Amino acid sequence: MEHDETGCQAPEGPILCVNNCGFFGSATTMNMCSKCHKDLVLKQEQAKIAESSIGNIVNGNCGSNNGVDPVIAETVDVAVASVERKIVSLQPADASASSEGTEVKAKEGPNRCNTCRKRVGLTGFSCRCGNLFCSSHRYSDKHDCPFDYRTSGRDAIAKANPVVKAEKLDNKI
Q1: Residues 9, 3: contact at Cβ < 8 Å?
Q2: Which residues, at least 6 apart from 143, have a Cβ–Cβ distance to it below 8 Å?
Q3: Looking at residue 7, what is its pLDDT?
Q4: CA 106 to CA 98: how far, in whole Å?
Q5: What is the pTM of this model?
């Protein structure tokens, strides 16, 4: 048998992730899928940062790092089952500001053509006049566009082609 001579063993079959997420894990990622392993590493790093910041607060040197980040010499093992997700929402101090923000989002709604009010979604065309139109009203002559294309064109040409005047030559011979 070649496997006994080289010391390599073929896996018996695919190994499911230990978090039961439905994906396959590997021995290099502690029998977890890549996403669960990445989440575990991220949580471990956050735990290290939290521990060092708590240590700094307890020791009283919260702002006196002198621009040097603290080095953590010990490792922190965090079990996946013991980590819980907590969602903390920050409330603004002014309650009227939060109600105004929700009203603006409610007024936006779906993207609609400015002429026929048809829903355009991602296929809407923005005009130079600043409005959104469907495919049949996207041209300026179809929606009575107030934008002055003639003046805009003249300005663009004038900016791209500045007038160059050479100094007059003295013809003294």
Answers
A1: yes
A2: 114, 115, 127, 131, 133, 137
A3: 58
A4: 13
A5: 0.32
